[in-house]
Amino acid sequence: MRNERRLRIEVLQLLCQFDAGNDDAVKTTPLDFDEETSETSEPSEEAVQLAKLIWSERESTDGVIAQLTPEWPIHRQPIIDRNILRLAKHEIFADQTPSKVAINEAIELAKEFSTEQSPTFINGVLDAILNAEPSDAGSV
């Protein structure tokens, strides 16, 4: 697995922990998680820094997402979905990842970690963010 994918997974795990109110003792689950031992590991420093940055942007990001999903408010979205959206929006506007790659990676994360409907939902929201007017997208 590429390092970028592993980084995204770690950041996503951290964002979900922050979202659940656990931001003081964050740990990540390895990809080859053994349920019998339930061992976790320390996240990479890069993942922690990126997750903290994205978390600090969440109010702005959530405002953009909320405008595009009035029928499905942020608080009703699955925790994994809203954090995939936060991560992808950051990637799109940070100009470090091509937009189409960021969207594709978000869809792949949704396929792996969320519900059957999530990839379509995430694709639609991110496509709307990408195609919104710059002032509407609330670029961070």
Largest sheet: none
What low-confidence regions span 5 or more consecutive residues with pLDDT below 50? none
Radius of gyration: 15 Å
How many helices in DSSP terms?
A: 7
CATH architecture descriptor name: Orthogonal Bundle
Average pLDDT over all residues: 85
The ordered string of helix (H) and strand (E) elements is: HHHHHHH
Residues in helices, as a percent range: 55-70%
CATH topology: N-utilizing Substance Protein B Homolog, Chain A
Give the tally of structural domains.
1
Structural class call reads mainly alpha
Quote the distance from N terminus to C terminus: 29 Å
CATH homologous superfamily label: NusB-like
Shape summary: globular
Topology, number of strands: 0
Q: Approximately what portion of the residues adopt beta-strand conformation?
A: under 5%
Characterise the protein shown here.
- By secondary structure, the chain is mainly alpha-helical.
- It has one domain (3-137): N-utilizing Substance Protein B Homolog, Chain A.
- Helices cover 64% and strands 0% of the residues.
- Helix 1 crosses helix 2 (45-56) and helix 4 packs parallel to helix 6.
- The longest helix is centred in the first third of the chain and has 17 residues, at 3-19.
- The mean pLDDT is 85.
